[in-house]
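tool_call: predict_structure(chain=1)
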Amino acid sequence: MRAFVTGITGFVGGHLAEHLLASGDQVVGVSASGRFPDDLAALAREVRVERADLADAETDLAGLLARKRPEAIYHLAAQSNPRASVDDPRGTWALNLGGTLNLLSAVKAAGLEPTPRVVIVGSGTCYGDPAPEFIPVSESCPLRPNNPYAASKAAADLLGVQMHLADHLDVVMARPFNHAGPRQSPRYVLATLARQVAEVEAGRKEAVEVGNLDVVRDYTDVRDVVRAYRLLALGGTPGEIYNLGSGRGLRLADALETLRGLASRPVEVRVDPARFRAVDLPYLVADASRLRAAVGWEPIVPIEQTLADMLDDARRGVERG
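tool_result:
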């Protein structure tokens, strides 16, 4: 299958590219940088990456798609950090909604036959802080996004539905809940915990500094997440939205205890009030039964393995400096 990935040089994009190649697909992609980071340099030998700004309506995405003729398009490119979205709401909306509009408009203008399947990657954060009767969270839960990232992702999903109904595009929407794995940026909580534990091990830090560890999140290994994206490219119903999650809650304090148990030396923990978020949902777990019924997906990587792999990756990062 010929695959086209937006945001291919990012955390999830790199894992998706690896999975697609392992599945025998031909892979090309675009990103704002136009190049893989150093830890993904091996992918550059097999995957061509074009530099493109999806938020710029003048970018000739239609011409690019007409040349590449993909059978599946995975739309990952986004401003993906909720906290950063509060600092830059306009930029977040421009990329997350505007970039999706530009991509889908380009798919329509390219007039490819057969029409490619487009997998739009949204976010489970669009449900906000669901009432107890909506947990675990299914796709029928009301949307109550409480930051620009979540709101722009919800709007992009609705745009996908609209362009499927009005323009007959072959679009499915994935709403992944929290996911993590090796190579994730320390901007995200499990990655920063792993990085800090590795720094304590190496003697570069006295203690792990934490915020609110009582929140519970549904974490799925990124390698399971990208498997689900490919399954949705092969199956699923056009115009449908699919939650993606393990269905199990992970308390952040328990995740940290797992990392401390893997450490080669005792790890002190200190609470840092600056790390507490102004809005922090206490409990968010997915109901992914629609996805399971549609494509037979199940997560296979246990969270303990995810955390061990993240700590090993963080150790390598600390060694590199």
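agent: The mean pLDDT is 96. Proceeding to next step.
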